[in-house]
Amino acid sequence: MSAFILHDHYFDPESGRISSYFCRLFILVGQESLQYCILDTEKNTFIALADYRLPVQAKSQEIYYDQLDKLLGDEEKLVKKYSSVVIGLDSQWHTLVPLSLFDPGQVLKYLEFNFSLPENCLVGFDQVSEIDASNIFGYSSGLKDVFSRHYPEAAFVHRSSALLKAVREYSQVDLDQPALYLNSREQYIDLACFDGKDPVFFNSFPCRTKEDVLYFTLYAIEQMKLRPDAVRLIVSGMAEPGSDVYRLLEQYIRTVPMAGWLDSLSYCPLIKQLPANRYQELFALALCGS
Questions:
Q1: pTM of the prediction?
Q2: Structural domains of the chain in order of their starting residue, each with its CATH number
């Protein structure tokens, strides 16, 4: 039995009657979590979502892979056959390269220029056409082996590619006021800003306290030469209205709305009961193709 614990789940009552062959599966795997959602391709609507967490961090990568393998082999909805599977990987080793400068034969060198990579590190890349860039990322061969055993034809993408596509969509909604997007996740935050279709700022920062979140947010605002009283900080992910980190951000930044639903995607009524700011990266994997 896997050590992963079901933290949250939402299933359309009709989802059990829909053949998985007419659905797409999207999996977002983190350092201590696995989330998945299912898209009914006939209605182009998300019909299921589940969020699994490890109660304590695994003592080794091998133990983590073993627990992940058990979850993928035991969970009822994860063992079904789907028309396509997209797996979003969370990796600290990733960098953006403009398409005009990108050479597929140099992907390892791009990463090695920015990071000291571990042994047995595999390298992949996503084309993020919305910003005319390639997102190059490294990930462990052990992780790929686990997923390839269960989904041999799955597509692997980096979680930040999905996030960038989501932020790019948001950035086209309201252009009257500069907006910075903050995505909160496991011990990290992502900060992104667009000017029209062009990314102005994108980076990820390790954050263990609410003060860390505030510091890096104000740092990003300063880097973009904006003022806290003149920027909208749009928040998605784990930060919730009324939380300690949210109240701290409100003390320094005048406008702090929560992210809404992605208009290009559809959700069943049960999932729509969720706060729209949650699981943005997971849903946005559907924007990454298959």
A1: 0.93
A2: 1-164+263-290 (3.30.420.250), 174-252 (3.30.420.260)
Tens of pLDDT along 229-261? 888 999 999 888 889 999 999 999 989 999 999
Residue type, position 152, single letter: P
pLDDT in tens, 150-164: 999 999 999 999 999
